[in-house]
Each structure stands twice: as C-alpha cells, then as structure tokens.
Sequence to fold (123 residues):
Amino acid sequence: MKKILIVDDHVDIRRLVRMTLEFESYEIFEAEDGATALLLAEAVRPDLVLLDVMMPGELDGLDVCCKLKSDPMLLNPRVIMLSARGQAQDCSAGRQAGADAYLVKPFSPLQLIDVIAQQWEHA
Fold:
C-alpha cells in the first residue's frame, strides 16, 4: 500500500485531499507544518508528499521539499507542491527545490488524482 503524506496548515485543505484519496488504497498521514512533516516523513517514509508552499513556522514548503529530496533515508519520495501562488517564478522555485509537480490552488479533486497518477507512472 502506497503511503501519502499531506502537509498543509489548513485543516480544511487536508480534509479535502484526504476525502479525495480515501477511495484509493493509500495509507494517508497528515502534518500541519514543516517541522512535523519532516519528523513524520522520517517515521513513515512516504512514497508521495503533497506539500503546501506557504506554512507557518521556520520551514516553508520549499525548505521541506529540499530536505525531503536530500535525505537518502527517505528514498526520494515524489513531491507535489500545492500552492495558491501560481506565477511562473513560483512554479520554478518549486522545481528548483526538487518538486516533481506543482499544482495551483484551488484545484479540483480530479486534477489532484491525475497529477498523483502521473507521479506513479514516473516513479
């Protein structure tokens, strides 16, 4: 069973994503900030991380993405950045941080499912 870590400071976003994915056979974990996300990632070693860019605390999504991608113990999880920031430089910053995909909020559940499916094809 594939493991997905949802990282977003908004509980409503996490709930929406969880509800979208519950119909699939995924093991789903949630974190509300970057520090918690890194601790949880070390514990569960997710296959995929859905990661908000703007979060409170010392680590934003870009920082978390860099750390996830550079930690050899995590076995290079796929990372999809989720952000309200949709400018070209925002997408570029996500890619430079190591993101495998960048999805702009608001997105539809079908968009999310499609982007996740693409990540499994490239894994």
About this structure: The mean pLDDT is 93. Residues 35 and 59 are 7 Å apart (CA to CA). The chain is about 45% helix and 20% strand. Strands lie at 2-7, 26-31, 48-52, 78-83, 101-104.
